[in-house]
Design brief:
alpha+beta; four-stranded mixed sheet; elongated; 8 strands; Immunoglobulin-like; 297 residues; four-stranded antiparallel sheet
Length: 297
């Protein structure tokens, strides 16, 4: 019985050892970011994230593994980078952080060569090559400018519209008279955000208020005019009294009988007509005599 237990234990130990060795001997890349052929990457602060299926947190191995990574531009020029890692959060990831900003609108190639080792001793047997494309920053600038202009136009339009609505509302609330457009319940309902029935009732109520206000204003105007006329009459009366006290009397300017409302007698009319005709005859006689003297000369 003891021999059987010992034999089974040996088999289990050997199985674990061989399984560990087999697992450690194969290292694979499970993910890479940016993905192959991905575009639109920003040239500044660029990094390539490589994820493996084994723990990579061994400083000596990481330093040695740097030689198995290459990042080149479209002309094959190597781009310098540093390997960044986080043993606590991402033990299976290595970040290749570019030391310099990349060129705009350029394709870059990432090469992962065979021979990379994990902290567990696994070795990458098959390498891989991927590419990514940086975004066109000139186009981004134009788009940003266009968006900014569009936003400014939108904000200006929205502000103008809001100001117009506020002005219409203030004009309606503060005007002394209800304007013609404000008599429209539909527009009033839209301006004040109320129902049509409420708008109609509001208009009727405002009409009554405005009518009452206008009556008061008219009464006030008449009262002021009456007081002014009374003051003028009192001043004139005081002046007349002062002139009479000094022995001076005012006489109205001469007016004709007709202007005074009377009727001119016929005899006076005939007499005045005869005078006018005699004056005309005298003028004609003088002109005739003057023309004869010129002919004699």
């Amino acid at each position: 019985m003891k021999r059987i237990i010992t034999f089974i234990s040996m088999i289990l130990i050997l199985s674990v050892l061989f399984a560990s060795a087999a697992f450690a001997g194969t290292l694979n890349v499970t993910d890479i970011t940016p993905r192959d052929g991905e575009g639109g990457k920003h040239p500044q602060n660029m990094a390539v994230k490589v994820t493996f299926d084994q723990d990579m947190m061994n400083e000596a191995a990481i330093e040695a593994n740097k030689a198995y990574f290459r990042i080149t531009d479209s002309n094959g020029v190597d781009q310098p980078f540093e390997i960044i890692y986080s043993a606590d959060k991402y033990p299976k990831q290595l970040w290749l952080v570019l030391e310099q900003s990349l060129e705009s609108n350029i394709e870059y190639t990432v090469k992962i060569l065979p021979g990379i080792k994990s902290a567990e001793g696994g070795v990458l047997e098959e390498g891989m090559t991927t590419t990514f494309h940086t975004r066109n920053t000139d186009t981004d600038g134009k788009i940003s400018l266009g968006l900014m202009v569009a936003m400014m136009v939108f904000m200006f339009g929205a502000t103008s519209k809001a100001a117009k609505k506020a002005t219409e509302k203030e004009s309606f609330d503060t005007s002394g008279k209800i304007k013609e457009e404000n008599l429209n319940p539909y527009k009033l309902a839209k301006i004040k955000g109320i129902s049509l029935e409420e708008a109609t009732a509001y208009v009727e109520k405002e009409k009554a208020k405005i009518a009452k206000r206008e009556r008061k204003l008219e009464e006030e105007r008449l009262r002021i005019e009456a007081e002014r006329e009374a003051e003028i009459a009192a001043i004139e009366e005081e002046l007349l009294a002062a002139e009479r006290g000094a022995g001076t009397y005012r006489v109205s300017e001469p007016r004709s009988v007709k202007e005074a409302g009377g009727r001119v007698p016929r005899s006076v009319v005939k007499k005045n007509k005869a005078k006018r005709e005699a004056a005309k005859a005298a003028v004609k006689a003088a002109e005739k005599s003057h023309s004869k003297k010129k002919k004699k000369k």
